[in-house]
Specification:
Helices cover 81% and strands 0% of the residues. With 467 residues, it is mainly α.
Length: 467
């Protein structure tokens, strides 16, 4: 075991080749994940429901209202998994493999507990939550049908992400990709069958979209679990005589809790934006446009997240190994690549917004406003790349609190107030989209301040140690 750890590729392989080899499978799998979210919304937009006065399909609006809670579930699942990944990678870099094993087992335990909490909330709180945003009976019923299924059967996404980050922490991103692809392909195949009742399947409508989603998540969970448990890896997961370790849980949440808060803030932001768009403005189409935008945005952001996830494991390993040169080279390459990706995304959204929006809007009711939203919001993409890559460094070095502060300042201190002020001052939906630009500049300023503090307290001492 000691020999295997010493020869871990994250400490020996040339950084550029290592980052490429680890991130490529993750980029592919995350692109497919983003694609099935898009496909899901495309099918939902074609469900035979009533059309609101503004021309928006009620099913699409219902999914948009459910999105913040789905985002919150992902926040808890991913946040815990980020804490696991950071701790496991650092312990492997420090050659403390027993503690890496403990981090894996305790992280999976925490994922299970989180899933049980959302199961209970799914049985009790869905309808009261959705009533905050709509008085339309059909939108409410559709939203309840969709969201309740996603929450009650959410165990798949929580446990899958736990096993997924175990694979990533060891650099086994190809195996991680296999598990994610299995679930994504299952979801894409089942969507039309379960929504529209093809090939003998029952016609379930919006409930079919939710069922296809959770079945895909469970498939990913099963595949990832088998790959971890049956494979010969540096990290071993065992629940024989398992007792929760306070030390491991504390370390997981030292990075994971800020990440949960950071992404949970995104859920609060989405909820707040839905409130602004549905209550402060009278046209009512803003929720549907935001839902479309976020699904299409994920096709740009997910490849970047694939790279930053791979980068986090490499940085955390070399931070634990006190190798400043490899740590910073990984971060710089990640920064350049992510800026390029987001710049290409910016060009795409500026040049092709109309055909993108029309994928979801066959009647053209929201195309004009959708084009304005895509062109305006996408202006922040390159700046977002810098902030996200800085956040990756914060989390990899165990300073997730910095990422939380950046996210808090961006989404709650800047974005929501700016959106509300612009909506009330102008009464125009098009003005609200500029709040994203305002918020991203604040995020950049706070990120640079935190980077300066991180360098002074954590990175400079390692640099001096290496010279």
């Amino acid at each position: 075991m000691e020999k295997a750890i010493k020869q871990n590729k994250m400490g020996t392989m040339p950084v550029g080749r290592l980052l490429f080899s680890m991130s490529l499978p993750m980029v592919i799998s995350m692109l497919v994940q983003a694609l099935y979210n898009v496909v899901d919304s495309v099918f939902v937009a074609r469900i035979d429901t009533a059309i609101a006065a503004n021309g928006v399909n009620n099913a699409l609006t219902a999914v948009g209202l459910a999105y913040p809670i789905q985002f919150l579930m992902v926040a808890f699942a991913v946040g815990t998994a980020v804490g696991m990944n950071s701790l496991m990678s650092r312990r492997l870099g420090e050659k403390r493999h027993e503690e890496a094993n403990s981090a894996a087992s305790n992280g999976l335990f925490l994922e299970f507990v989180s899933a049980m909490v959302f199961l209970v909330l799914g049985l009790t709180c869905v309808r009261p939550f959705l009533k905050i945003f709509t008085s339309d009976a059909e939108v409410l019923d559709l939203g309840v049908s969709y969201l309740k299924i996603c929450m009650v059967f959410c165990l798949g996404i929580f446990i899958h992400l736990g096993f997924d980050r175990i694979l990533q922490s060891m650099g086994k991103t190809g195996l991680s990709m296999a598990a994610q692809l299995a679930g994504a392909v299952t979801n894409i195949v089942l969507d039309p069958l379960m929504i529209f009742g093809y090939w003998g399947f029952p016609k379930m409508g919006i409930a079919g979209a939710a069922a296809a989603t959770v079945i895909g998540q469970w498939v990913s969970m099963i595949v990832a679990a088998l790959l971890v448990v049956l494979g010969k890896h540096e990290i071993k997961v065992s629940f024989k005589h398992f007792k929760p370790s306070g030390e491991s849980i504390k370390e997981i949440y030292r990075v994971g809790a800020p990440s949960i808060v950071m992404q949970g803030i995104g859920s609060v932001m989405n909820t707040g934006m839905n409130f602004v768009l549905s209550r402060f403005l009278t046209d009512g189409m803003g929720v549907a446009i935001m839902n479309i935008y976020y699904k299409m945005q994920s096709l740009i952001f997910m490849p970047m997240f694939g790279i930053t996830n791979a980068s986090m494991s490499i940085i955390a390993f070399n931070f634990g190994a006190k190798d400043y040169k490899r740590l910073m080279r990984t971060w710089r390459i990640t920064l350049v690549v992510c800026i390029i990706i987001m710049s290409l995304g910016l060009l795409c959204f500026q040049i092709f917004p109309e055909p993108i929006v029309r994928i979801f809007d066959t009647d053209g009711a929201i195309t004009g406003e959708g084009i304005r939203a895509f062109k305006t919001i996408s202006l922040h993409f390159p700046i977002a790349a810098i902030c996200i890559v800085c956040g990756t460094l914060f989390q990899a070095t165990g300073r997730g609190f910095y990422s939380m502060i950046v996210s808090l300042m961006r989404q709650l201190v800047a974005l929501l107030p700016a959106a509300a002020i612009l909506a009330l001052a102008t009464g125009k939906l098009s003005a609200v989209w500029w709040s994203f630009i305002i918020a991203e500049f604040m995020s950049l300023a706070v990120s640079l301040i935190c980077m300066k503090r991180l360098y002074k307290k954590e990175l400079k001492p390692i640099k001096e140690m290496n010279t």
